Structure prediction request, 663 residues.
Amino acid sequence: MAPVTLRKLVKRYGALEVVHGIDLEVKDREFIALVGPSGCGKSTTLRMIAGLEEVSGGAIEIGGRKVNDLPPRARNISMVFQSYALYPHMTVAENMGFSLKIAGRSADEIKTRVDEAAAILDLGHLLERRPSQLSGGQRQRVAMGRAIVRQPDVFLFDEPLSNLDAKLRTQVRTEIKKLHARMQATMIYVTHDQVEAMTLSDRIVIMRDGHIEQVGTPEDVFRRPATKFVAGFIGSPPMNMEEAVLTDGKLAFTTGASLPVPPRFRSSLREGQKVTFGLRPDDIYPSGHGLHAGDADAVHELELPVTITEPLGNETLVFTQFNGRDWVSRMLNPRPLRSGEKMRMSLDLSRAHIFDGETGKALAG
Amino acid sequence: MKLSKLSAPTLLLLPAFIVLAVFIVLPLMFSLYSSFTPFRLTKPDTLWVFIGFRNYVNVLTNAEFWVAFGRTVLLLTIALNAEMLLGLGLALLVNKATRGQRILRTAMMFPMMFSPVLVGFQFKFLFNDNIGFVNNALQSLGLTDRAIPWLIDGNLALFSIIVAEVWSSTAVFAILILAGLLAMPKDPVEAAHVDGCTPWQTFRYVTWPYLMPFAFIAMTIRSLDVARAYDIVKIMTDGGPAKRTELLWTLVGRTAYGDARMGLANAMAYVAILLSIVFTVYFFRKLAAARQQIGAEW
Prediction:
């Protein structure tokens, strides 16, 4: 049993504070992703959990035991690095069995466990090779094998797919997901790629500038982003967002265009309030080509010109001009469109998001 | 034969061949030839007397030669190992320094900037039994009350020479190993920490295999250096006392210029060069193996 708890965790480099007292409870056997842009402190946090960075303040507990001052070897963790970090002078089998050898296990046991891990990751035929003789994807699988063999309480992944090409990335991603189902261990996964975070994890932690913006299931962070930042970070293509002021009971945009206030926000907004209005590409679509009919009352229709289209086969991303900028919409069952063509667009306002203009926090509807 | 009849490649290569022939191949052939003669500097005519392998037979059956040979190998073994250990320690320490690493690196190389002859003089003074710093220090600290005959006792003299050698050249190891440390990727070391290694195990199983090629490069360079050791010994003991610190090249030098027996000295030199070649080949093999081990791409 190994839940991981961060309490008021702080990291400072000299006078520069990069992680500002974050709190997080990772449940036993949970797959949690730390996601955020470069420099948000996610890797630093992971490295503190691993024991590779000193903790400047607060506490880290693994399995209820405070580990702040324990060296990495006493934490019973495994880590998969972005650069694979394999031992170049050892064969694949030696790489995978190294932690057991250090722990003084018998040669028989090492072989059994290496063979098991190799079978899981389909590495059996590569055991006698050296890392330099392997492809990137194979190296990353060996790195995962090395982590598995150790049977740790907690797996830590530091952007493990970043060095792989797109196709391999999807493939190894699936393997990591299978691995979690099989190992039933706590896994903490750092990535800057929201798709990885969404597809893999039970819960996602979105970080920004050393703070946690939101913790929630993929569904939560997508459907109910807590802040404007989360709304913009999660989802591809990103949410359409526009500054607005509540004027005469309408959302008035800076250029003069306006939209009715979405029904669920009608009671909570006050006149003159500055907000950011957000609508996902799924919730704005050429009429008749939407993902869902939505609440008929809340669908607002507009005639908008198409600027460009990005056909993806089963759907087309349509960029339409509204309020002086391109709004992305998702067109299902697409038909060919011409640039400049006027389209009747449906805006499903029941799914709109409104954020406070000052704090960027989501307003409750 | 007209020059223009030669093909362009031959013509272009000719200067290099001529220079090499005049300055290297011919002297080498001449010295090789003279090793088959009883050539003495004092009797030029002897250069034309061919005596076959007699010089070589003399050398190989000469106890004095073999003692010098053995002593050179001994010096090489002790000095290289000591330099390697000290250099490694020094490199690891400097690598840990978070501030002033450049200054430390420069300071570390100071001993290499002095001429070996001067190093010899300096250590000759340090180890002088009457006025030397070493005895003075030992006596002042109350560690001994007699004057230790550093350069007069045979074993101590060799020890003193080794100390001078090690002092002047440990930096070669330190610099090369430090280069290795600086070039080494950090991730495998971190992976080892996570895999459960103690700092010693991390060094033993991850860092050291990575540094080995660098250590072998230093070994190769220094084995050639020490195998031709001459200057420091010449100054400090001149092979004495009673030839107890005679090395291969001091013996060759003495035979050639002291006894003027150039033919015999050349024969000795050729045998000595074999020693250097053997060491170089040995360390190069080790280097190649170590490089392959870490999958080095250089």
Q: What stands out?
A: Chain B has a mean pLDDT of 88. Chain B has one domain: 19-113+169-293. The domain at 19-113+169-293 of chain B is CATH 1.10.3720.10 (MetI-like fold).
